[in-house]
Queue: 3 jobs
Job 1
Amino acid sequence: MKIRLVTLLVLLGGLLLSATTVSAQETESYSQAKPEDMQWFRDAKFGLFIHWGPVSLKGTEIGWSRGGERRGIKGVGPIPVEEYDNLYKKFNPVKFNAKEWVQIAKDAGMKYLVFTSKHHDGFSMFDSKLTDHKITNSPFKRDVVAELAKACHEGGLKLGFYYSPVDWYHPDYRTENHKRYIEFLHGQIRELCTNYGQLDVMWFDSLGGTAEDWDSKNMFKMIRELQPHIIINDRAGLPADFGTPEQEIGKFQTDRAWESCITIGKQWAWKPADEIKSVSECVHTLVRCAGGDGNLLFNVGPMPDGRIEPRQVVRLRKMGEFLNQCGESIYGTRGGPFPPDSWGASTHKDNKIYVHVLNWESDKLVLPPIKRRIVKNSILNGGVCFVKQTAEGIEISTREPNKKKIDTVIVLELDGPAADAMK
Ligand code: GLC
């Protein structure tokens, strides 16, 4: 009898233990993606961010230029709310061609695309069953999200949806009926995770809202159940899978993935005659992100007729040309070992370090010492260089004509893995 009781207790204990293990795993699985599902993202380095909606007809900022109450956030946009909210009735971007957008991204060397499925203005760029305030009720009538998803899947680009839990249009948002808004939000996220095939990134933008504001815990559980390999950014009140520095290059950080989102011009949505970055600034931005061990999500705002502005396309294609030649020093690399500095940044892969010299500040670049021996050196985009390695450090120089206008990519081949060269 005694023995039986003990056995029973042990069994019960075992059951309890396995129950707690299961719930620990459950917590893990909703809060964080598996490391193997992060790999493509870490290798990709470069994606296209697209901010688009009926507001492009005005050429003002998406969401923020809408007049009216922002419920909890100060300020009022310049376009009267009645006008802003009715812009979609005139929105007919007949030149929109999802395949063309995907081709532009691919030509730029981008590996994924993130599109604004709904911004703070509450307008759905997809055929949601939960609202009438949506693209399929515009004269255009087409589900832009569906067309983009199809083009990405066919073109081999990974796909992400930007979604703003902040919604200045929805009548229940941050009112005493906010619970109802949460149901709507979860319902729309369910639609996005169900109706458009494989989704690789969910990109929330909640302007500092907490996990409780969106019931993010349950929302994440649903998302990961519907899209088991998805990765999620850090803007729904939970740290999730990657950080999102905005309009700045993330700091050197190798233990957690990050992605800087940066506009090609000054505005997220299309702005006529916007001041746009030079080719050199575009490439440097990408190189500095990779050198800091992060990604660049580079933003364009397409025009009201549906095309990405030709001036922007030129820049993107030039970035693609750079990557055609120097892609091995970006894709699949990790940042460092040399911390980024005013001269440029470095990346590494296997036995190679890529030193991206963005500014030759003097005739010699002097880098800190490394533990491994440099056995070979070259310039990836043409020419030869001189490398002197001593116990004090590494000196790199080259003749003037070998210095590239945008980035001189120097390859240092080591006698072993570059990953631990500085440890
Ligand atoms: C900001 C803005 C928004 C933009 C986003 C992109 O949070 O509110 O307009 O879409 O950044 O990171």
Job 2
Amino acid sequence: MTLKDRLIRLIETGGPIPVSTYMQLALHDRQDGYYATRPGLGQDFITAPETSQVFGELLGLWVVHEWQAIGSPAEFCLVEIGPGRGVLMQDALRMAFVAGGKPFADAMTLYLVEPSPALRDVQVERLAIYEPQFAEQASEVPALPTIILANEYLDCLPARQFRRDGEEWRECVVGLDGDGALAFGLAADGRSAPEGTAQTANCVEVQVGLDILVAELATRAANGLPVHALLIDYGPVDRAPGDSLRAFKDGEQVSPLLAPGETDLTVDVDFGRLKRIATSAGLDVHGPTPQGMFLLGLGAQARLNQLVKANEDDAEAIFNAAQRLIDPKDMGERFKVICLSSKDLPKPAGF
Ligand code: SAH
């Protein structure tokens, strides 16, 4: 039985499920979920570290800079949430070990937060020399100074969706149509507008995972640990995302209900809300700033010039790939970088 068949059964017996539950099962069902079984990284979608090594390398320099800025603690945790195929961390640590030398290498313990067994296998192979520890959740990482990186992780956190229905708001659900096929619908009972909803909005999405991450960072900060979490993703900065749920297969956009477990599901990240909840939890917030500006600020141009010089035969391909990360018409503006930090640390590089 496919995941789709199982979901249809589930809805037949228990009734429609919230969009967030659908997203959770389609991505993470142990048996048939997309990330658990057939992560199509590089096939269904291509991320920044998979596009150019400059991305991970500059983040590696950033990590060394921030580790030094908090006083080069003799022990700290470098955490990546959702490391995918491990390419970002591989590029980052190659560079960080050069820039930070032995003191950095000795101080760092690498933690990878990754629920997918299939991706853990890939990560352990690529990053074996750094002896990574695995965690299911960031909360399992020891209470030490912490630097977190996450690229394209927030956008796969399940979103609840709400739609305006006259004076009331209703939660969007996945149910069955007259032919017994998966279909979007609205929950029977209404509720008041979700927090932060603009008067003019007719549909909003709320990712509860953002609150969970912020709470974890705030707990560490409240315990006196220096913390930086550098998060990179797409989404609006000045309004809540409306209906942004979409699915990708082989680089093409398809219906989110077409083939649960076989397509990547993603939503826009509500950077405005992330900033609000982090600030009210007592964290310092830097950004969001466009990815292109951030990378240029970290020295993307100089690193690219070096690479091109050292690889003259591939110069054009190397140049074009790195340019995609920076170009405002490509990933440079659509992707944003935000850093959530414990209070009163030196301002992180790139902001
Ligand atoms: N950062 C990588 C991969 C992005 S794909 C890159 O830039 O190439 C999303 C990643 O997040 C995958 O590794 C996926 O398994 C992971 N992921 C999804 N949900 C997660 C969760 N709840 N906790 C931790 N990781 C998660």
Job 3
Amino acid sequence: MNKCSKCGNHQVIIHRKQSGQYLCNDCFIEDIQKKVFKTIRKEKLIEKGDKILVALSGGKDSVTVLDILYDYYERNIIDLVAVTIDEGIDGYRNDGVEIAKRFAKDLGIEHKVVSFKDSYKITLDEIMSNPKHRGSCTYCGVFRRDIINKTAREIGATKIVTGHNLDDEVQAILMNYLEGNINNLQSLGAMTKSKSPLFTPKIKPLREIPEKEIGLYVIAKNLEVHFAGCPYASESFRGEISQIMKNLSINHPTIMYSTLKGFDKIKIAINKEYKREYNHNNCIKCGEPSSNELCRVCTFLEELKQ
Ligand code: SF4
Ligand code: ZN
């Protein structure tokens, strides 16, 4: 029978094909935490005194990142505020919001729930009942980013943490390579700083952890998470890329890591070669940074009114 490669325990919960390693429950938890701490140190993601906004959906990624960052909070290195966005998706979002509330309460950290309805006077369900809608995820992404940026400013956060994992990051890299989208490629990485002082830097401490291992982490730590999928999630380009990478990983178990590492090297050259386009304009309606007269939020809201 296989034994944990670290402590010799026979209760193995994972065999990592990429390294040949076997791990028991406790050694696996410790290993994931150490890896995340290492990413944080290597990429200098956190500084003493940071006030960190965690975008907490209640899903496995955001719950895991908050669980791991809590260690810094307990040691008084950082302050943490969790923010959950309620898009207004009936029968789906409520469970996640409740899980997020319970988790933040258990940890004793400040928690805010901000809804599309309060912010824009419309829910995602209402948007989707408009026959001229542009697709759920288009609004969802733009509105969520807007809420997170504004809330970060309101509470004086110095960093925004998201739960992006290795699979998410590799999908984004490949999508933007294939579309030749240099601007978007430049905004990928462990820390993204916007040129506008109105936007708080975003960090991704789980960027080197595969999605499967985050799923196992929440089980190993017995964390309550919202596993249900969004009813609007559809077969997208991202979904196709995800499937390709999963298939490739069967015979090439390190391919996601090598794609990420390769990109991190290439990014240095991209940044030298291409100066990021940045327009110092502000939306004439809401005043947020925008490259056009109206920002995307205001453009969408105007369209939906018609
Ligand atoms: Fe929003 Fe659902 Fe699309 Fe995710 S899948 S971006 S929650 S609409
Ligand atoms: Zn605007």
